Amino acid sequence: MSETNRIEYKQILTDALEKEVIAFLNYKEGGIIYIGIDKNGNVTGVADTDGDMLKIKDRLKTNISPSCIGLFDIISEQKNGLDIIKVIVASGPEKPYFLRKYGMSEKGCFLRIGTAAEPMPQKNIDQLYAKRTRNSISKIKSNQQNLTFEQLHIYYLATGVKLNGKFTTNLELLTDEGAFNYVAYLLSDKNAVSIKLAKYKGTNRVNLIENNEYGYESLIKATKQVLDKIDLENKTSAEITSKERKENRLWNPIALREAIINAFVHNDYATEVPPKFEIFDDRLEITSSGGLPEGLSQEEFFEGFSVPRNKEIMRIFRDLDLVEQLGSGIPRILETYPKSCFKFSDNFLRMSFPINKVIQTQDYKDGPIGGPIGGPIGSPIGSPIGGPIKNLTDRQKEVLELFREDPKLSRRKLAEILKINVSAAQGHIDALKDKAVIERVGGTRGKWIIKEGY
């Protein structure tokens, strides 16, 4: 593949990296930089992947203004048996971005034109600066300044990272004047943000049977509580044939997780309207405030182009392994659900996921009989037939053997061993859990139990 307006190749890490990243930050669609591939598309590899990745992160953090932390991902990949580095850059919400040492000038600002990063004319710089987002939650001062962050510290410690005394600066929790901003307020131990999860009997909002509230606390904790609650609601249904019992959950767990995280990360908190989650007899709806970000079309949205509305929240969610990489969520959802599940308006984005149908059949000489079982499925149906399910993929069998060797293996370590991303590793774990092959005991510090028969 040759270079395009969104793809840049570099044989080695050079001094021009920041220039290319700035051009993509200022470009409406962002872009990807591959290091270890020459201009002709030939893979040459990178000698010191880990060292170069650390250098890239430090250079982009130090040399570009406004801060682009949360707007890029650095990933190690293998191509043709050689290590390469992939730098994914999102379109930034605070254009124009520029080299800090040259300031907001034609020498410091760049724009992607074709396959090149060109200096930005001063007229364009002035126009972009005039349009720069003013209601960014990082610039809004929190109405409360006596904030604490014990929960945030605990979540970072769980990933093996201890926040130091400068975490409020490093995580961009302060305004330019040094006060706690609205990001800090959302992530603090106590706030007034209410996250609602409602359950209705029927297919409309008339008969409310359950109303859960997961707010007034760190957005991270609220996110995990919503994930856990919907995972409980995502019960198992069954399709029974003469040969085997096939089990399916009401909603695809990988797509559902991506949709929930997407709603939390990209919600427009400046409107003070949090995301909302609603369960009906025939569907689950997730509604977030704010339409598509400025400059992002529906087509670009579905193709995975990323324009993070809240880059500070995106960065922290990535640190805590809640988000894998920029622009990956929507394509994962579309692997299971059609584009028609998304509804856009000027002020809201709604995702609506239908409940899987349960079909029970039995083979006779005259052909299969039976049909859809009416109504929502309130609990798992039936019991295993003919012993444990054996229809595991080769990759799932590989994961199973790794858990057998090390029951305390983390999903991050699993991803490293299999050379896949963390979300993909979680997908294999979820599949094994869905098939009742493994069970987690003891929480995050516990271990995996392999069920009898495997």
Q: Can you give keywords for this protein?
A:
454 residues, alpha+beta, four-stranded mixed sheet, globular
Summarize the structure.
With 454 residues, the protein is of the alpha+beta class. The chain has helices at residues 17-25, 49-63, 122-131, 150-158, 167-170, 182-187, 219-233, 253-266, 298-302, 311-319, 329-334, 394-405, 411-418, 422-434, and strands spanning 7-10, 31-35, 64-65, 72-79, 82-89, 98-99, 110-113, 116-119, 196-200, 208-213, 236-240, 245-249, 276-279, 283-289, 342-344, 348-354, 438-441, 447-450.
Tell me about this structure.
By secondary structure, this protein is an alpha+beta fold. The protein contains 14 helices and 18 strands. Strand 1, helix 1 and strand 2 form a beta-alpha-beta unit. The longest helix is centred in the N-terminal third of the chain and has 15 residues. About 7% of the residues have low confidence.
